[in-house]
Specification:
The chain is α/β, with parallel strands linked by helices and 197 residues long. Helix content is 35%, strand content 23%. β2 and β3 (31-32) form a beta hairpin. α1 (13-20) runs parallel beside α7 (172-196) and α6 packs across α7. Residues 8, 10-15, 91-92, 112-114, 183 line the site of 5-O-phosphono-beta-D-ribofuranosylamine.
Length: 197
């Protein structure tokens, strides 16, 4: 079974959904959650991040990374490889991924972005800034993009997009909620798909 490291800097709601796994309906009724992967590590750059509590509650080891080592060293590539990490999932991780790590996990690292790339991506386009800009530009729809990570920010090959409507009276907060529903629905199955390739 593929071993996954989730990189997160924040509350970790997507990390939690991925840990729980995608659900399917059992032939005898009810929900079954048997993820075809194991979340073996949570990687985080903020000691106060909520995702660390989620890791603790789910008995998942954590790696708190340091800026100097991440950007000037080997970007923890050796540690991740030695731990047996097969796939990296970026779920709200706000540091740019160094090229060494991207190369080491080429085709095995994915990210989720809270908008329809290639629009509203790139440096500074995260969290509420994305939703504010989408609304200011009077877009009729927004959504999520799950994509492979390459050397260019928010640029790698797109795996999946899902959309939601932007209503006339939409606020960044209400749009964030709609987008989060899409993220929680689509991210775990996308990770499962990647894990079974
Ligand atoms: C998500 O909106 C994701 O698209 C973005 O960061 C957010 C992470 O949220 N990259 P959470 O920490 O998983 O709740």
């Amino acid at each position: 079974m593929k071993q996954i490291a989730i990189f997160s800097s924040g509350t970790g709601s997507n990390a939690k959904k991925i840990i729980d796994g995608p659900f399917s309906i059992s032939p005898v009724g009810g929900e079954v959650r048997v993820p075809p992967y194991k979340v073996s590590l949570i990687v985080c750059n903020k000691p106060e991040a909520g995702v660390l509590k989620i890791a603790e509650e789910n008995n998942i080891p954590t790696l708190l990374i340091e800026k100097e080592k991440f950007f000037r060293g080997n970007a923890y590539t050796d540690e991740l490889k030695t731990t047996g990490i097969d796939l990296i999932v970026l779920a709200g991780f706000l540091w740019k991924i160094p090229v060494a790590l991207i190369k080491a996990y080429h085709g095995k690292m994915i990210n989720i972005h809270p908008a329809l790339l290639p629009k509203y991506g790139g440096k500074g386009m995260y969290g509420t800034f994305v939703h504010e800009t989408v609304i200011a530009n009077k877009e009729k729809e927004s959504g999520i993009t799950i994509h492979y990570v390459d050397e260019v920010y928010d640029h790698g090959q797109i795996i999946l997009q899902a959309t939601c409507l932007v209503s006339e009276d939409e606020t960044p907060e209400s749009l964030a909620k709609k987008v989060q529903v899409l993220e929680h629905r689509h991210f775990p199955p996308a990770v499962a798909l990647l894990a079974t390739l």
